[in-house]
Amino acid sequence: MTDAQQDATAILDEVAAEVRVCPKCELARTRTKAVPGEGPADARVMLIGEGPGWHEDQQGRPFVGNAGKFLNELLAIAGLSRADVFITNVVKCRPPGNRDPLPDEIAACSVYLDRQIAAIDPDVIVTLGRFSMARWFPGERISRIHGQPKRDGRRLIVPMYHPAAALHQSALRGAIEEDFAKLPKLLAEIERERDAEAERGEPPTQQMSMF
Ligand code: URA
Ligand code: SF4
């Protein structure tokens, strides 16, 4: 492990430790276990869901229920496994009865997500569902923009349907499968771009010809 990876791992551990005892919003009072998220600090792909469900709240781990099983299938379509990616949520504690997270809960929890993104510095962020999408695409409709990458500095944000929604609606299921199938090409492109920059010794560019 490089020094940078060691530092990133230490930051992720610190965030996780804080999240597990976090009192910063109402969700702290009803959670069983907080769910900080998991994956390697050098993950090139980060996935951001909505919030823990019942199984996640019991186990303290993200996407371990039915939506999680489907997510594993989607990752396989992209040639990825759970060990390759960092998975977390917009809120780290389960909203009671799986209600939508509230704006003040999302705001209170965003400091943790900010620190996770900064530590991992992924090439690609996949947003799953509308709450993580809203962070980069405020006011957008997922039905209009799913699968269309947007550049944020040197990384790509790819909005996708939430696997829990897509699992039970065949039209969305086809769409999310197609969107995951696009990931290898996007990753290869961004890697090529980075290699070219490193060779030229240039700072990161803001444009990529492909988009
Ligand atoms: N749905 C989410 O958004 N996140 C999880 O961790 C599980 C289900
Ligand atoms: Fe803290 Fe986030 Fe859990 Fe709220 S949801 S208690 S801000 S970790």
Report on the architecture of this protein:
By secondary structure, this protein is α/β, with parallel strands linked by helices. The chain has helices spanning 3-20, 54-59, 66-77, 103-120, 130-136, 142-145, 163-167, 170-181, 183-200, and strands at residues 45-49, 85-89, 124-128, 150-152, 155-160. The protein has a single domain, classed as Uracil-DNA glycosylase-like domain (Uracil-DNA Glycosylase, subunit E), CATH 3.40.470. It contains 9 helices and 5 strands, in the order αβααβαβααββααα. It has a 5-stranded mixed sheet, sandwiched between helices. Helix 1 packs antiparallel against helix 4. Uracil binds at residues 49-53, 56, 62-63, 67, 89, 164.
Would you state the CATH class?
A: Alpha Beta
Rg calculated over all Cα atoms: 17 Å
Named once each, the bound ligands are: uracil, iron/sulfur cluster
> Can you tell me the overall shape?
globular
**How many helical elements?**
9
SSE class: alpha/beta
CATH architecture heading: 3-Layer(aba) Sandwich
Residues in helix, %: 40-55%
Strand content: 5-15%
Extended strand count: 5
Mean pLDDT: 94
CATH fold node name: Uracil-DNA Glycosylase, subunit E
Strand order of the largest sheet: 2-1-3-5-4
